[in-house]
Design a protein that fits this description.
With 203 residues, this protein is α+β, with helices and mostly antiparallel strands. It is 22% helix and 28% strand. The chain has one domain: Cyclophilin-like (Cyclophilin), CATH 2.40.100.10. A hairpin with a 2-residue loop joins strand 1 and strand 2. The N and C termini lie far apart (39 Å). Keywords: Isomerase, Rotamase, Signal.
């Protein structure tokens, strides 16, 4: 009996300590025409990237933007690939580019549900982002890769905590085989999915 009481007390005491050790995140809801996606922004582990996205949210810069791309990968498990959305370099919406936060510095990874900034060169990300359908380790930074193109990877800054079924529904939406340029041709949605509003989740 005493041992059970001690074990119970230990669990009780360890709960708050474990909660305090968890990295700080900020929940945000993306209200889309296909349903809501709730994400947790990693403001402690990826402060530059998550802070940038939060500014887009707080200033209403994502309201009325769209998910416009669904990249499909023929890999298991399926569905696999990513969806992409955001400001599409709209000069009325975008903020200045931010410094690149590689996953080798943040400790985050391109796991299922990860949010990752779209970019050209490192340090060029503004207001476009992707959500992973499955883990994409090739998008993580790899400083030891013999190909310099893989050294920096992409910046993860949050994870989906509710609404992955909405992400999968957007990914499954019809694509236009003639839309897109270069290697993205055929990956553009026939009808973009509108992000009606992006807001901080209510406590």
């Amino acid at each position: 009996m005493i041992r059970l009481l001690i074990a119970s007390l230990a669990l009780t005491l360890s709960g708050p300590a474990m909660a305090q050790d968890a990295p700080q995140t900020v929940p945000v809801v993306l209200e889309t025409t296909m349903g809501n996606i709730t994400v947790a922004l990693e403001v402690e582990r990826a402060p530059i990237t998550a802070g940038n996205f939060l500014r887009y949210v707080d200033e209403g810069r994502l309201d009325g933007t769209v998910f416009y791309r669904a990249m499909h990968l023929d890999w298991e498990p399926r569905p696999n690939g990513l969806i992409q959305g955001g400001t599409q370099f709209d000069p009325a919406r975008i903020l200045p580019p931010i410094a690149h936060e590689p996953t080798s510095s943040t400790g985050l990874t391109h796991a299922r549900g990860a949010l990752s900034m779209a970019r050209h060169d490192p340090g060029s990300a503004t207001g476009d982002f992707s959500i992973m359908l499955q883990a994409q380790p090739a998008m993580d930074a790899d400083p030891n890769n013999p190909d310099p193109a893989f050294h920096d990877g992409y910046a993860v800054f949050g994870f989906v905590i509710e609404g992955m079924e909405v992400v999968e529904a957007i990914h499954a939406a019809p694509r236009d085989p003639d839309k897109g340029e270069g290697w993205m041709k055929g990956e553009m949605l026939a009808e973009a999915i509108v992000i009606r509003r992006a807001r901080r989740a209510q406590p």
